[in-house]
Amino acid sequence: MNKDLREKVRELGDVPKHIAIIMDGNGRWAKMNSLPRAAGHKEGINSVREIVRVCGEIDVSFLTLYTFSSENWNRPETEVSAIMKLLFSTIRKEIDNLDKNNVRLTTIGNLNDLPKETRKNIKNGISQTRDNTGLNLILALSYGSRQELIRAIRRIGNRIESSQIKSDDITDDVLESELYSAGVPDPDLVIRTGGEYRLSNFLLWQAAYSELLITEKHWPEFRENELLNGIIDYQNRQRRFGQTDEQIKA
Ligand code: IPE
Ligand code: IPE
Ligand code: MG
Questions:
Q1: Beta partners for 237?
Q2: pLDDT digit string (tens) for 217-228?
Q3: Which of 59, 108, 140, 235 is most buried per CB count within 10 Å?
Q4: Does ligand 2 come within 6 angstroms of the Cβ of 154?
């Protein structure tokens, strides 16, 4: 535990309420270490464990982890099945510990795409941790933001067709209520590891005003110090939401 960095985070004030992370760079980390890609995903789990623990300890309320995108299904079958196996075994191994640490597990994305046994064990994990009051850990699984928006628009269309609402009634809140992430505040900080400058179909609506932090570190190398430094970077920024510096200071 890095006491100096934690102290600095405390001094600087509020931590982001919601951090969302695009956990990228597992494959390159593996290559760099002359290992198969799956070994990168496996090592990435150690980062997940540490980041989840630290977020809980410093009172982050929501942590969304981009774990598997709707586009990741297009990877070679061997890699997809290795990731699905890891997902299954990790949830099985970690769920009691998460539960003990008061973590509440939820997901966004199309769970129906996942293998049956993985889906089942995720659902069990969600119900086991349902009443926990600590960190909300949100796994984005088979998640794509465009698909999420299409789904939301269809659901609103159904409400219009059944005369529950009129098209004029559609507001930000109505759209948000139909997203997978309904009820979750927008991410304050979106972190992408692995150095790519793109969102890769992640939280396109929700990240409209998020602060972005891109680091060259590969996900398996992203640990407590990297997270705390990222939060300090965030804390030193001014979020203006379209206003001027003077307005914010007033
Ligand atoms: C992120 O790491 C994990 C997933 C997308 C599942 P990558 O596997 O994309 O790693 P790189 O980008 O090839 O290094
Ligand atoms: C984004 O990483 C998805 C996850 C981290 C789960 P990718 O590696 O799939 O992104 P692209 O394809 O390089 O944009
Ligand atoms: Mg990648």
A1: none
A2: 999 999 999 999
A3: 140
A4: no
